[in-house]
Amino acid sequence: MNSEFYQQAISDPHSQCPDFLAALASDPQLKAVQQSQLQQEEAMLALFKSTPTPSDSHLAAIDAISEQSEKKQWSVNNYLALAASLLLCVVSIKYIDIGSPEYNQQLASHTLNHTAHGHSYAGVINTHPTMGQLNVQLASYGASISNVDDLLWNKDCDYEGITSAHLVYQDQNAKINVYVVPDSYEFSEVEKVFSDDRYQGTIKKVSNNYLVIVAPKGHDLAPISQRINNELHWTI
Amino acid sequence: MNKESIKKHKYEQLVKLYHGDLFRYGYWLTHDKQVTEDLVQETFLRAWRALDQLADINAAKSWLITILRRENARRFERKQLTVVDIDDCVVLDEHADIEAGLENKVLAQALDMLSIDYKEPLMLQVVMGFSGDEIAKMLGLNKNTVMTRLFRAKKQMAVLMANQD
Q1: Domain extents for chain A?
Q2: Given Cys at both, which of A76, A194, A214, B24 links A177, Cβ 3.0 to 4.6 Å?
Q3: B11 and A65 in contact by Cβ < 8 A?
Q4: Could you tell me the pTM of the whole model?
């Protein structure tokens, strides 16, 4: 029996590759291996189908995801509630001074704070993530990456109320912090270029995210920005 | 039909077509019905939020699986251990309950004994119907590696099942 077709009969018994089909037709032993494998896979499929059924409350919650959103869009009551909330916020901020937002609403300020906060560990503990790990992380941001050379560290961070993909690159002697922040956060201020006394950065709107690159002050951002533009792909 | 209605219709189609598969896949990753329900709910919530980014509806299944796998990984990142009194616990072995109703308990046990590196491509191929190319893309591996893992997974399954007979 041809070992290549034997492996195929096990790993991909449904293959419609013409050479494989011809081999099946001419080799009863190979055909038997394929049939045995197909039987085992049918049994596995039946096994999977026998998992418990989800609860009614779960199914209702899944349906409600879009319902709630639609109601938010169209319900007059919600408009009224929103107006009342806004009024309350204005009053709170102006007179009571309790209007601290749930998250930092200035994107530049947030990423500067985030970079300073992570300075002691982000990219210091050298994790060298694999491309597979990175692409799993980036998938829910609608992104993928094609090169992980010089990438030191990655994490999904929840800092100052904002969840973002946080990557750290080594670029010459500097550690470069890259953030992918969903644009579902409504920022009051998004500056294209920003800096403080330690760091400088850029913000670019890409797909449904903001891509923020932060480097130590004085570091030339152009090469790493170009590289990230080339290697980070917005897939969906 | 306005934009919001189109989005809602698209979402309902995704739920109708893929909820069952996602739930089964999630269950075989977690072995816990409640955790699976949370996982699948979070997956659809994220899918709803990002639905405008899904240009090709034909890619929806792998897109949803990718979100679910990522959410499952996040579960371990944020997992906090809490201490409870052992006497207050009722031990439920859901897996045992399910297995009791299965025609092929041996098959279930063999599957559980596979390492996740082998179990996951196997589930994606056999249960979810993905091709080697699609699995490679989802797992960030090349196709040859995926096909090798599938071959080894199935050979290991055969050995494990033979040993349990």
Answers
A1: 105-234
A2: A214
A3: yes
A4: 0.52
Residue A20: per-residue pLDDT? 93
Strand partners of residue A182: A209
Domain end call among B78, B109, B127: B78
Contact B147 A55 (CB under 8 A): no
**Which of A11, A42, A136, A234 is the best substitution to test chain B (most B C-beta atoms within 10 A)?**
A11
Domain identity same for B126 and B74 = no
ipTM of the complex: 0.74
- Angle of the B3-30 helix axis to the A56-74 helix axis, nearest 10: 150
Q: How many domains does chain B have?
A: 2
Contact (CB<8Å) A140/B19: no
Apex CA A53: angle with CA A52 and CA A56, to 5°?
140
Q: Domain for residue B84, yes or no?
A: no
- Angstroms from B3 CA to nearest CA on chain A: 11
In a domain? residue B150: yes
Pairwise CA distance, residues A157 & A122, whole Å: 11
Domain with residue B126: its CATH number is 1.10.10.10
Query: What is the pLDDT confidence band of residue B82, given thresholds at 50, 70 and 90?
Result: very low
Give CA torsion, residues A121, A124, A125, A128, to 10 deg: 130
Q: Does domain A105-234 have CATH number 3.30.200.100?
A: yes
The whole-chain average pLDDT of chain B stands at 80
Mean pLDDT for each 10-residue chunk of chain A (236 residues)? Answer: 86 92 94 93 84 82 74 55 68 51 85 88 77 80 87 86 90 92 85 91 90 94 92 80
**In terms of CA atoms, which chain A residue is nearest residue B146?**
A11
Cβ pair A236:B140 closer than 8 A = no
What is residue B165's predicted lDDT score, i.e. its pLDDT?
A: 59
Task: Give the residue numbers spanning the domain of B73.
Answer: 3-78
Residue pLDDT, tens place only, B18-62: 998 899 899 888 888 888 999 999 999 999 988 888 878 788 999
- Under the phi-then-psi rule, with left for phi > 0, alpha for psi from -120 to 50, and beta for the rest, what region is A186? beta
B65 and B101 in one domain?
no
Tell me whether residue B86 is in a domain. no
Counting other chains too, the contacts that A113-116 makes at CB distance below 8 Å and 24 or more residues apart are A113/A159, A113/A160, A114/A157, A114/A159, A114/A160, A114/A164, A114/A166, A114/A177, A114/A179, A115/A177, A115/A199, A115/A201, A115/A214, A116/A198, A116/A199
